[in-house]
Amino acid sequence: MASTTFRIGGDLDVRRLGFGAMHLPTEPAAEREAALAVARRAVELGVTLIDTAHLYGGGANEELLAEALHPYPEGLLITTKVGVARSAETGEWGLDGRPAVLRGQVDAALRRLRVERIELLQLHRIDPETPLADQLGTLRELQTEGRVGRIGLSEVTVAELDRAREIIDVASVQNRYNVLDREHEPVLRACEATGIAFLPWRPVAWGTSGERAEIAAVAAELDATPTQVALAWLLGHSPVVLPIPGTARIDHLEENLAAANLQLTPAHRERLDRLPEQAKP
Predict the structure, then answer these.
(1) 3-class secondary structure for 53-105?
(2) Structural domains in the chain (count)
(3) Is 72 a catalytic residue?
């Protein structure tokens, strides 16, 4: 049976099946109250890894999590991301890895999350307009200053990961990945080889009707839901995978987290492993 926990950066223990907070609404009031309840229920059910970002409402999502969960229970990791900013001129969001912007977003995150240190901070995207050494060097300085514990990346290639590891110790990578979308399989394998946590965003996604039918068939044979099958496949695919499914509903949250107890047989796993190949023209 696969391990249910992982040690990020070699020293930060979390349960592998986490929670992505992106979908939690921060307004209006009624929806916000429901979102607070979902975040609290996630922790009640044993979640110790929650993912958010400055991009999610310009920090409103971070504030929501603090309202729901502060003071934080021991062992709870809230990881956030920086490096996407809204233009003061156009109001549009775009990549911005300039050192002053990264520092400002980290300062804001510390204030919104009500913490003195962000234990895992991820660069939301590499900004092609700013030298990588400047972006990662700034995060490394924040780490040296004690305001950041560990540094992660998001949406990177193997080559970018290799370059980044020449500058910083990379604790995590957050790329799009699921049973039907394995574009970043090489990145996952690079993470596995070096003990880096791999946090797949969009961990549940449905492709063609035939692919959905195959997943649904496996789910029916196991008396589970297709979502649970997709998450269980991820957990068994690599020991460094830490899925962070998101939802704004408690019933979906409970369904997602129950996937940690679902055991796929080797035959089921083989059928699911073949899906991307079947999708190729």
Answers:
(1) CCCCCCCHHHHHHHHHHCCCCCCCEEEEEECEEECCCCCCEEECCCHHHHHHH
(2) 1
(3) no
